[in-house]
Specification:
The chain is an alpha/beta fold. It is about 25% helix and about 30% strand.
């Protein structure tokens, strides 16, 4: 049975791979392909942060964590495992995602930066998106999938080819399905030369309005439906560079990097790792994450044997939840479209 997947970011590619492995004939349709997707801007680390509903996010995130840990042992995926710190100005309890990770402890007083009173130390997958998305595209094509570059304005176009469509259009779903619950969350990052440290750092700075109930660090900072334009400060070392972030500018559609914002990001990061100030800036990047009050992952029957399985609205959690969501998409396709 043939399936058309709309969208070629991390969600679309992960769904495409899992559908192929389940025996479906799959085409991905998308206007933009890697490296020109929002997914490419992501730092990215596995880290559930402001994704809803929590009980479903926990299951999706746990499954994706396990897959990424497996991929960390495969050459050419761009996935590795790193140790890092999440620090706070106040005392905090254990995170709700604790059960998902394999290595976790409280930070010692000696490990905490000046001005921070509490923190965690944990290991998690780091995903270098430029490498990882190319790996996913190779894996998809090598398994028999096809990628078609086209600007999809209506599902009617896809239904001419198949009665089964998977909607991984991200923020584009706002226009595609008329979902006004979707909104952009602008995230800006700065890429600099590699640092001497390989440890990542996340700073929950309450002076800038952080909300511990809020989204994941990807594509430029914390995302969600709050008004914290500052976002989580983070430093994510990678093999050939280091990503500094970030911002969480709700409702801002601008894709143009702002140099004052970039300078602020560098200064915030340098307070933790002064070496940052000495590094050459390699690039500035902006991504618009698809914010929503909760992720939409469900099947919709449109009559005449036509079915759309929606998988969008992940905010900054697209990478962290990708494999878990993709496997649920396969289950929904089987249930509503046959096998």
């Amino acid at each position: 049975m043939r399936v058309v997947v709309v969208g070629c970011g991390v969600s679309g590619l992960s769904c495409g791979v899992r559908l192929l492995e389940a025996g479906y004939d799959v085409e991905i349709w998308a206007r933009d392909l890697p490296p020109n997707t929002t997914s490419n801007v992501a730092a990215a680390i596995w880290y559930p942060y402001k994704a809803y509903p929590v009980e479903r996010v926990t299951a999706w995130g746990q499954r994706a964590f396990d897959v990424f840990m497996e991929l960390a042992g495969v050459e050419g995926t761009g996935v590795s495992v790193a140790k890092g710190y999440e620090v706070f100005r106040r005392h905090v309890g254990d995170p709700w995602w604790l059960s998902c990770v394999r290595s976790f402890r409280r930070a010692t007083e000696e490990e905490l930066p000046s001005g921070r009173r509490d923190g965690y130390v944990f290991e998690t997958p780091v995903i270098e998106m430029s490498i990882y998305l190319e790996y996913l595209m190779r894996r998809f094509r090598d398994t028999g999938g096809r990628i078609v570059v086209r600007d999809v304005r209506s599902f009617e176009e896809a239904f001419e080819e198949s009665g089964l469509v998977v909607n991984c259009a991200g923020l584009g779903a706002r226009e595609l399905v008329g979902d006004e619950a979707l909104f952009p969350i602008r995230g800006q990052v700065v890429r600099v030369e590699p640092l001497s440290t390989r440890d990542f750092l996340l700073d929950e700075d309450e002076e800038h309005g952080d909300d511990k109930d809020a989204v994941e660090v990807e594509a430029g900072g914390a995302t969600g439906n709050g008004d914290d334009a500052h976002g989580v400060t983070y430093i994510v070392p990678r093999s050939n560079d280091c990503v500094l972030g970030g911002t969480a500018q709700v409702g801002d559609w601008s894709l143009e990097p702002d140099m004052e914002t970039a300078a602020d990001i560098i200064e915030r990061c340098a307070r933790f790792v002064p070496e940052v100030r000495e590094k050459t800036v390699l690039a500035h990047a902006v991504g618009l994450r698809p914010g929503r009050h909760e992720i939409r992952l469900e099947a919709e029957r449109l009559g005449k044997g036509r079915v759309v399985v929606h998988n969008y609205g992940h905010g900054g959690s697209g990478v962290t939840l990708s494999w878990g969501c993709a496997e649920e998409v396969v289950e929904l396709v089987r249930e509503h479209g046959g096998s």
